[in-house]
């Protein structure tokens, strides 16, 4: 049913049935007089019905000439077929009645429906004055037949000589055709939006239609295709190149394609290219067909408001009309009131192209400096394929327009394109075209033969071709040439290069266009040429745009061409990158809500917010640079300076950052310099930005540049894993979780490969790489970052294991029976002299904590001669006394330390090595390229001398110190003390408890009490500043919170034990507490290579068993409650009911079925109790319970355990090595003496801390108990 708003609806309905009149005449051969009578009767009926249903409508009048019979035979045929005509006239009258009733019925509803935006702003055109066509008096100049043409009262018909104009002889009315076309006939129906509009529609309304109604993004390039309307064939190779090149140009640049829209000629060739694009399934190209409304076949089917119209893109062979191409996505059907005539769309299409060419590309502005990202307008290019005479005129109009439009001509496509290519080839750059003038007759003859036109028109086309050649630089010819692979220029490159040649853009504007199109190949070949000069800041703007839009190749290109990232990346720019709306979707906003709740809409992220996110994701003691105290005044000063610079353009941002001056009193006193806004390691900051915004390829690029590649890979791995965990907790899509996990695995692999490569090149430097303190990564080491990222493969690498073995052994050097020798040394201290120890130089190369370094310094100062200080006297500066590892000086410094004063080595980017001398020496410079050979001779002589000194034995005092501070010694001392404690505690709970504790109990009390103080020391001495962070870091190890709970339980039992009336309760608590102290042996066994993975398996099985217990409890309660309720219906409410419900069902799981209680005997026998109602149900439910619990759930649990065993067993070696690192780090930081003697270490450390504080010695910025 068609609904219309036109007050002359009956006229349209008459036109709708005009084809029925033709059908009457075709099939019945009815003479004109009969048809005239049918028309007259139908007209009279319409008038009557219109007056009844639509009183405001005037009845149409049909001016049909009355024909007279030309012979008797004709009159007889008319009489024979009068019955047929009368029947058909009745059918037509009924159709008209139905249409009028439908219109009258819909009119009241239409009054209450508001018109859409399209109906309000777009109109159609209908001819209102009949002007006979000179060629056919029965047709109007608009193309409509006289019988279907509407007439308006008061408007007389014109004479054959009158000029018909659409602006004068048509009337605009709200459009009545827009919606969606659903093309049938393919594997899947394709849909396209369409709208019928007037030829004089304003182009800004069309752009609003594209962007607001059809949700299109503005184009970054407009390709308008011109060519022939009639069908033609192309060479197979040329057709392939045009399809591929046009599609690539559109997809890579985000272009729109304008065509004629119909399924004929050049538009059909473009549609074939779009068909190839549809098969690739990589996103639909925006293809807009602009076609005349009157030329579209069956256009009456498109009438309606926001309809979905099924359509077949198959034209009738005899029809002069055309169908729409089914590969276009959008159609503008231009109406100027004509029917079956081309040309209605030409004016509107050119106006629309010119309007789009004036639109700016990306009018968004810089966040701080308020400058446009790109200054160029939307480029337009015309692509000519084949074509006729109108194509030559269109090309002339394009190249002579202001501003001109570049044209790309496809040579070999035929007709107009070949002529343009030929003329372009022989045209000269000047005004005189001598070569073309000499070929004038040949060209005119070719034009006559090609277009089948007369001599006058041929000469006119020849002159138009000459005018085109005057703008030769605007025309580019694309030819298929037989060139080697990689040298031939493709069509997409030809199109984009033509734009650069014709528009005379500056290099920054060209680069901005190439960035917008994402065509790095064009930028590399056309823009970054030898000798190109760039204004200040031009490449910085391009780099910012490339980073925001995730243009990886452009970032590489800009880095290759001189962009210094250290000068480019500033604090405001980094903050702007975090707030950009471009790029892939990420989960940063979800995580930020956890650290910044109640974020308002439009909130701008600050670097402090990002630092909080990094701290949350990294966990542990990690503190981002953005959240540190020294960064805050710098941030406030920089932001205040930038806000003052753009105060006039952004009041809101100035107000926002004006308050930042109150962050610190130091801000006002801090002098501002441009270097304050820069970062020392910009690639590190950009790597974190890329990871947090989920730009994996950009993150990989930043990983390959800059310093500390291993640390960057570990941090990226940890961030991705934490983000995946947050995504799983926020119930985001599973794909996001899997994507983040895959990114983490990629960085895991790269970090492992990098370490393996470094280890093969230089094992010693690779070990230092793992243990050196990284000031830019929260003073962490690569080993600690690997533990935080749970990177088992890296910790299992031989390089890591060598370091762990050295740390575990400390200063000892024993290969066989190490554990036995250590235990023997603990039992008999005089045996320590017989053990092998490392030399002083080897100890110096080992990683040390700051406290160990200070202790070694004191020992060496006591034992060494002050005139020749030992190499270990070199202090390692630190910002705090954290126990993270610090790298010592390199081997060259170690060799030269005994002869020369200690110097700090700095390696610069240019290959220079600066040795900073002491206060009394001048700094010397050593070049790696032009050094004096004498320096090398001196160095090698010293090396030979110092090779002998490397084997100096340690003094006795140093041996005792290295033995007792070795982690392996601490481990065995702690294990022996713990086993002795277990024996004493077991004796305490097994024998009768006296009123006064025995010495065994006193020992147990002292052990647990001092162990509690040790746990407090571990919390206080951990790296974080906030107490909550300290506790979270301490609780990361599962055994620590368990130890804390067991100690608290023991203290509670101790309190009950010393009261006479609650002594038994205290003893019971002792007994319960002893369970955990025995289970804690598993922590000691985890060090073993074979038992460690088994302990890990047990822990994972316990976690999985918790889920199983929930399922088991559901089944157990379902049977237990039913059984108890049936067998004992008269029970009173007591707490024992809970035990009776769960007791027997639970032990049935282990084989105790309680056969006598399943179906207890009952009956009429006086010796037996009476049977309760439903007693027979119990055996049935028990059978079902045992089937589900014993067979199904228990075997399911066994299968889960088996899966865990296989999973852990496959990586058991890595699991053990990972646990080994945890144990080494734990005992590296423990005091020398075990509990309860550890109290002496605590007292000694406290006393030493107070002494150092009183002396004001450096390196003791916070309290530490490490001896």
Automatic annotation (TrEMBL):
Subcellular location: Membrane
An individual GO BP term: metal ion transport
One Pfam entry name: TRPM2
Keyword Metal-binding attached: no
GO MF term set: monoatomic cation channel activity
Family annotation (InterPro entries): Ion_trans_dom (IPR005821), TRPM (IPR050927), TRPM-like (IPR057366), TRPM_SLOG (IPR041491)
Transmembrane spans: 971-991, 1038-1056, 1105-1122, 1185-1205
Keywords carried by this UniProt record: Ion channel, Ion transport, Membrane, Transmembrane, Transmembrane helix, Transport
Name of the molecule in the record: Uncharacterized protein, isoform M
Source species taxonomy: Eukaryota, Metazoa, Ecdysozoa, Arthropoda, Hexapoda
Gene of this entry: Dere\GG22364
């Amino acid at each position: 049913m068609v609904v219309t708003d036109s007050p002359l609806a009956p006229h349209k309905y008459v036109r709708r049935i005009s084809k029925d009149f033709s059908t009457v005449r075709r099939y019945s051969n009815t003479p004109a007089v009969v048809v005239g009578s049918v028309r007259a009767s139908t007209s009279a009926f319409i008038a009557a019905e219109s007056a009844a249903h639509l009183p405001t409508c005037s009845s149409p009048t049909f001016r049909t000439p009355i024909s007279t019979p030309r012979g008797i035979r004709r009159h007889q045929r008319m009489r024979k077929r009068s019955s047929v005509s009368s029947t058909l006239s009745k059918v037509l009258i009924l159709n008209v009645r139905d249409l009028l009733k439908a219109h009258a019925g819909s009119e009241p509803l239409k009054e209450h429906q508001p018109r859409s935006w399209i109906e309000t702003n777009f109109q159609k055109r209908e001819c209102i004055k009949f002007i006979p066509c000179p060629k056919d008096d029965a047709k109007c100049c608009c193309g409509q037949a006289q019988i279907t043409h509407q007439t308006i009262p008061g408007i007389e018909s014109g004479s054959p000589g009158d000029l018909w104009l659409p602006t004068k002889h048509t009337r605009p009315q709200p459009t009545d055709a827009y919606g969606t076309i659903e093309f049938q006939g393919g594997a899947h129906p394709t849909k396209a939006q369409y709208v019928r509009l007037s030829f004089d529609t304003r182009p800004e309304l069309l752009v609003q239609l594209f962007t607001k109604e059809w949700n299109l993004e503005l184009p970054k390039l407009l390709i308008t295709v011109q060519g022939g309307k009639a069908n033609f064939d192309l060479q197979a190779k040329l057709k392939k190149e045009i399809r591929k090149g046009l599609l690539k140009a559109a997809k890579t640049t985000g272009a729109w394609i304008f065509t004629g829209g119909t399924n004929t000629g050049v538009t059909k060739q473009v549609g074939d290219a779009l068909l190839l694009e549809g098969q690739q399934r990589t996103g639909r190209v925006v293809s807009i067909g602009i076609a005349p409304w009157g030329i579209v076949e069956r256009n009456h089917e498109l009438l309606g408001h926001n309809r979905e119209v099924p359509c077949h893109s198959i034209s009738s062979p005899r029809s002069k009309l055309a169908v729409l191409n089914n590969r276009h996505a959008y159609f503008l059907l231009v109406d100027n009131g004509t029917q079956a005539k081309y040309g209605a769309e030409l004016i509107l299409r050119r106006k629309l192209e010119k309007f789009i060419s004036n639109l700016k590309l990306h009018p968004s502005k810089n966040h701080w400096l308020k400058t446009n990202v790109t200054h160029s307008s939307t480029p337009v290019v015309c692509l000519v394929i084949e074509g006729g005479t109108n194509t030559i005129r269109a090309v002339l109009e394009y190249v002579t327009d202001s501003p001109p439009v570049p044209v790309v001509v496809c040579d070999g496509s035929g007709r107009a394109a070949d002529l343009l290519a030929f003329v372009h080839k022989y045209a000269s750059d000047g005004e005189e075209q001598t070569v073309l003038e000499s070929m004038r007759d040949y060209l005119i003859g070719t034009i006559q033969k090609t277009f089948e036109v007369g001599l006058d028109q041929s000469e006119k086309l020849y002159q138009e071709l000459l005018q085109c050649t005057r703008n030769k630089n605007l025309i580019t010819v694309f030819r298929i040439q037989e060139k080697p692979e990689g040298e031939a220029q493709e069509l997409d490159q030809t199109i984009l290069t033509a734009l650069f040649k014709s528009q005379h853009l500056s290099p920054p504007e060209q680069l901005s266009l190439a960035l917008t199109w994402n065509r790095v190949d064009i930028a590399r070949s056309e823009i970054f040429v030898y000798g190109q000069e760039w204004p200040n800041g031009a490449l910085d703007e391009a780099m910012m745009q490339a980073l925001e839009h995730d243009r990886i190749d452009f970032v590489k290109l800009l880095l290759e061409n001189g962009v210094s990232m250290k000068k480019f990346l500033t604090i405001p720019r980094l903050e702007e990158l975090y707030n950009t709306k471009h790029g892939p979707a990420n989960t940063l906003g979800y995580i930020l809500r956890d650290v910044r709740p109640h974020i308002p809409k439009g909130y701008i992220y600050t670097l402090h917010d990002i630092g909080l996110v990094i701290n949350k994701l990294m966990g542990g003691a990690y503190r981002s640079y953005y959240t540190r105290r020294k960064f805050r005044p710098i941030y406030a000063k920089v932001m205040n300076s930038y806000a003052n610079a753009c105060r006039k353009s952004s009041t809101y941002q100035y107000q926002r950052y004006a308050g930042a001056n109150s962050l610190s009193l130091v801000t006002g006193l801090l002098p501002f310099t441009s270097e304050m806004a820069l970062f020392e390691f910009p690639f590190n900051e950009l790597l974190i930005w890329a990871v947090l915004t989920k730009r994996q390829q950009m993150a990989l690029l930043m990983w390959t540049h800059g310093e500390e590649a291993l640390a960057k890979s570990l941090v990226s791995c940890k961030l991705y894993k934490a983000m995946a965990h947050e995504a799983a907790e926020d119930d985001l899509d599973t794909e996001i979780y899997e994507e983040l996990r895959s990114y983490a695995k990629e960085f895991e692999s790269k970090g492992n490969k990098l370490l393996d490569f470094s280890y093969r090149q230089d094992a010693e430097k690779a070990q230092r790489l793992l243990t050196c303190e990284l000031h830019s990564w929260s003073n962490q080491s690569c080993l600690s970052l690997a533990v935080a990222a749970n990177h088992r493969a890296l910790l299992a690498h031989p390089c890591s294991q060598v370091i762990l073995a050295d740390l575990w052994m400390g200063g000892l050097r024993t290969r066989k029976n190490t554990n036995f020798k250590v235990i023997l040394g603990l039992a008999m201290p005089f045996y320590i002299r017989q053990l092998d120890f490392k030399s002083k130089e080897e100890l110096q190369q080992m990683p040390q904590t700051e406290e160990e370094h200070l202790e070694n310094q004191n020992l060496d100062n006591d034992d060494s001669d002050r005139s020749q200080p030992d190499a270990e006297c070199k202090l390692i500066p630190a910002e705090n006394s954290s126990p993270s590892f610090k790298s010592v000086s390199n081997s060259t410094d170690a060799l030269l330390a005994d002869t020369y004063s200690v110097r700090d080595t700095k390696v610069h980017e240019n290959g220079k090595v600066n040795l900073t001398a002491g206060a009394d020496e001048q700094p010397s410079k050593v070049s790696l390229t032009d050094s004096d050979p004498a320096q090398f001779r001196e160095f090698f002589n010293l090396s030979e001398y110092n090779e002998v000194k490397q084997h100096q034995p340690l003094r006795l005092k140093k041996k005792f110190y290295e033995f007792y501070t070795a982690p392996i010694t601490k481990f065995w001392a702690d294990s022996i003390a713990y086993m002795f404690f277990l024996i004493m505690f077991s004796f305490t709970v097994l024998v009768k408890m006296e009123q006064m504790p025995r010495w065994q109990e006193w020992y147990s009390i002292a052990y647990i009490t001092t162990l509690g103080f040790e746990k407090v020391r571990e919390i206080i001495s951990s790296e974080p500043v906030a107490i909550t962070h300290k506790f979270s870091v301490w609780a990361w190890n599962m055994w620590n919170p368990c130890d804390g709970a067991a100690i608290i339980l023991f203290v509670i039992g101790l309190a009950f034990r010393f009261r006479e009336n609650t002594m038994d309760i205290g003893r019971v608590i002792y007994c319960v507490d002893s369970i955990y102290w025995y289970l804690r042996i598993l922590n000691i066994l985890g060090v073993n290579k074979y038992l460690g993975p088994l302990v890990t398996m047990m822990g994972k099985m316990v976690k999985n068993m918790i889920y199983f217990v929930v399922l088991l409890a559901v089944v157990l309660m379902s049977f237990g409650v039913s059984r108890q309720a049936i067998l004992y219906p008269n029970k009173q409410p007591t707490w024992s009911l809970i035990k009776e419900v769960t007791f027997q069902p639970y032990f049935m799981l282990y084989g105790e079925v309680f056969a006598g209680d399943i179906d207890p005997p009952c009956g009429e026998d006086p010796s037996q109790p009476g049977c309760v109602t439903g007693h027979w149900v119990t055996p049935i439910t028990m059978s079902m319970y045992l089937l589900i619990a014993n067979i199904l759930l228990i075997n399911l649990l066994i299968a889960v355990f088996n899966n865990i065993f296989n999973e852990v067993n496959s990586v058991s070696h890595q699991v053990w090595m990972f646990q080994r690192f945890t144990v080494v780090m734990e005992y590296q930081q423990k005091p020398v003496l075990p509990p309860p003697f550890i109290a002496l270490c605590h007292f000694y450390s406290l006393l030493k801390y107070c002494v150092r504080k009183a002396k004001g010695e450096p390196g003791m910025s916070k309290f530490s108990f490490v001896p």
